[in-house]
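Model: Ready when you are.
Researcher: Fold this.
Model:
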Amino acid sequence: MKEAPAPASLPPSVLVVDDDPHGLVALKAVLAPLGLRVAGAPSGRDALRLLLKERFDLIVLDVRMPNLDGFETAAMIRQRAATATTPIIFVSAFSQAEADVARGYGLGAIDFVTSPIVPAVLRAKVQAIAALEADKTRLLGLIAGAREEAAIASEFLSIAAHEIRRPLTVIGGYLSMLVDGSVAAGSAAGRKVLEGLFVKTEEADRLLTDLLLAAKAEFPRNAEAIVDINTAARLACERAQSRASLIGSGIDFQGLDRTLEARADSADIGRILDNLIGNALSYSPPEAVVQVRVIDADTARVEIEDHGRGVPVELRERIFEPFFRIASGDPAPGSGLGLYLSRKLAGRYLGTVELLESKADRGSTFTLSLPGSRASLSALPPERP
């Protein structure tokens, strides 16, 4: 589940509309100390054209303009969905203020200032309204991001429920055969049923473990943990050695003769490397040797190279999606969450898991990269509370 992007932190924007060139310059000068993005339009029509291209948090609109006055301009602004709720401050001559106020509020004006303008008054009104509008825009962005996250989470849970139902369905079928007596527990057929129950129970357990890890990956990281990437890679190779021997494969570890530190949790890095090395063994032919290389470059990097069938170009990003398998009925064990989890866990520490290279029937190279020197650790943002 992806993390929602942070809203942009641009200053609020204001569009000033006045047919008098001197008045336009004066209004922009009054607002300049506020540090806002201020644009000017010399007529109502120019303002409408500008609003088609750009979004503004606030409009300061002179009432008395030839051809298309401020009220007519405001009415057209309100007709467009994109600007229907944009706040408008009308600028009205003092002598006309009473009549203009009634008409302006009918067009959705949020405030009025009278001419000649008192700079401090205009600045106070613009600053307050523009800030509120910018906050509203950021809040709407957060709400939209939350809705997208909720939709992604719902889809994830739906797929997860489907995936976990598969081994449970098989387990239920096997148990019913034993319960109704159609298979005797002590017979050869019964032993095969029990073996099937054991395999499917392990499959369900692995899936539940991966789902719990997926949930953990959404929580804040341990900001103080330091891991030696070289040691973590060596230990992962040692853990995978018995499986490699069992299937007739080998693991060639090419490490460093010193430590290579990164700010990350050693358990998380161990899980990532276990996943990548396990995949390399699963997709390599018998007697193939998986290479695991530790590299100290701009980042601390571990490369895992297999000799399998490779990943088609069109699927090289999809393999990082949850539950995605390259082909249905894929014989390699796993839940389809390994690469997804690996990338999520690495991302907690500003790291990445990528498919570096892949060639058909010649193998693939995956890489784990993390900020790798003490100096680079300062690039990590502060831990969320």
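Researcher: Now this one.
Model:
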Amino acid sequence: MKNIFFIFFFLITTCLNFSLAETKYEKIVFINLDYIFVNSLAGKDLNLQISNKEKDLKIKVNNFKKEIDLKKTKLITQKNVLSQEDYKKKISELEVEVEKINTSILTERKNLSLFKSKAEKQFTANLNSIIEKYAIENSISIVLKKKDILMAKNDLDITEIIFNKLNEKIEKLIIK
């Protein structure tokens, strides 16, 4: 009788453990966010917008430098012709102009940084909604970033799936 009870107890415990293990199993996947940001249609468009804004700012800075250098050179050549007071006055005017240009450049750099931040937030928000929907539809418990993983099976990578869904949903983001 003890043997039957022991066997019965063992079978029930084992079956219960298997069913608990099955319900505790979490589906975990990973995604390469950098790949999606660089290669998706929306990501490429945002990167192009950022690159264009950076180029425009660089051109403006170089133009300002050239303009100031020309004015300095012109002022230096006029040093012997102008009176001491006029020369000092022109130097202070040039310094005020340089200060205004520096302030303008600083403002544009802040605006560029703000644009990058907004673009990243908007892109991430759109991407997260797609990932969240996919995770719910496929009973995924955890989605990790690929760069934070040391090693994993390739079949756990959902990058291509999300990449295709993002390209279907969003081709271009307009940053306000």
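Researcher: Key takeaway?
Model: Confidence is low (pLDDT under 50) at residues 16-23.
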